[in-house]
Amino acid sequence: MTAAYAKERLMSVVLGPHLSEKSAITGERDKQIVFRVRRDSTKDEIRRAVELLFDVKVDGVQVVSVKGKAKRFGRTPGRRKDWKKAYVSLAEGSDINFMGAD
Length: 102
Known about the structure:
This protein is an alpha+beta fold.
């Protein structure tokens, strides 16, 4: 795997922040940030991607695979896609500001 491919892969691992009440409480209480990530990503890839994208030091990563909900589309039963989220613990003194204000 070339270095350019590896960097491109890391840039596509983190899909975005997962904003919910639970993630806000977790962020305040445990100093963790919750991200939506690719389903085929590993903890090491997530750690390196967050460090690359946000220029912070990551202490740890916990990963949860979320099963898609069973839903009905009109008369047809179906289900939403499965997805993965990562709880990222930042090192002391590191912070990610999504709002853009300093």
